[in-house]
Amino acid sequence: MLPYLLIALALADTAMGEVIAKFANCQNSFYASIPPNGFQNLSNQASIVNLCLKYPKNRNPFYAALYHKMYHYPLYSAYISSGFGQRASPTSLLEPQLVSPSLPPYMMTLQDLVKAIDADTTIQGDPITLIRNSQAVNSDYENTSYNKGQLNPDVQHLPGPAQDATYTLANIVPMNSALNSGQWRLYEDSIRNLTLTCTTMYVITGAVNGETWISNNRVNVPSHIWSAYCCVDANNIPISTQGVWASNNADNVNRVTIPNLQSWLNGQLGVNINLFQNNCT
Ligand SMILES: *[C@@H]1O[C@H](CO)[C@@H](O)[C@H](O)[C@H]1NC(C)=O
Ligand SMILES: *[C@@H]1O[C@H](CO)[C@@H](O)[C@H](O)[C@H]1NC(C)=O
Ligand SMILES: *[C@@H]1O[C@H](CO)[C@@H](O)[C@H](O)[C@H]1NC(C)=O
Q: What does UniProt give as the signal peptide span (predicted)?
């Protein structure tokens, strides 16, 4: 067992940057500051990194994402819903530290990222190639039938930096357009509305990898989207909780209990997942 343990520890240590081991700088995005348990048991851990999403320069992280470097999207985004926001679809930003830990720890435009790479003497190679190898870019979503589906949606944040920070490709998956503009949109609205009844509304929204890809196999298309919330009062006592999952090929959202969502995730991912401490009860 020991060699395996050492390999596992070595891999954990390679997690870079604001790409940080165990979400060290953004644990308060999670209920009780505890990230979901079980994702560390997925195979191919070397492809999975912990991101603390920052916008713009040197601000505290707004939320957390477990990013998959082969699928080129997050396995989940974990965040605190903060109220009534607006929907928009600007050009999405990119994550410098997915290219190199020597780059700045906050999201930026493609243009600015190319400049930052050019200015960094420790990085060798063509900036655009390095960027495309490390993450999805906006053009991957052009001319596809899929929407840029935000896991942490703009509509659950007041206009300002917390909302702006949702426009990064590290928070985006290819989502069925009927679902994204139909039942999933209503689910997002219902969480936003419910946020008014909580002191803090913790949400985790994720994607299950599927069999198809877009943009010359650059970005995986999730087979399913899922989400769970934990609404707590001023003493951090849970008030309400629920889970949902949806196939990414139909406009339908299934509402389930947290234990049922976890059983469903176990069937999809093959590992035991615990989303919230004590299932948010
Ligand atoms: C999308 O299609 C338009 C029109 O055919 C084309 O000009 C553009 O280059 C395409 N974009 C990508 C990323 O393939
Ligand atoms: C959310 O609240 C708005 C305004 O109060 C209401 O119009 C809308 O129907 C609600 N949406 C859902 C999905 O509950
Ligand atoms: C996942 O790994 C933990 C240790 O990190 C272990 O305790 C647990 O039993 C594993 N669960 C599975 C196989 O889902």
A: 1-17
Residue 270: CB atoms within 10 Å: 10
Instruction: Please tell me the number of the ligand nearest to residue 272's CA.
Output: 3
Residue 7 in tokens: 């390999």
Q: 2-6, 123-127, 205-209, 248-252: which range is least confident on average?
A: 2-6
For 43-90, write each residue's pLDDT tens digit: 999 999 999 999 876 578 999 999 999 999 999 999 999 989 989 989
- Is 38's C-beta closer than 6 angstroms to any atom of ligand 3? yes
Q: Is 196 helix (H, G, I), strand (E, B) or coil?
A: coil
CA distance 63 to 27: 9
The values of phi and psi at residue 245, to 5°, are -145, 155
**The pair of three-digit structure tokens given for residue 16, joined into one six-digit string:** 């870079």
Which of 156, 142, 218, 223 lies closest to 187 in space, CA to CA?
Answer: 156
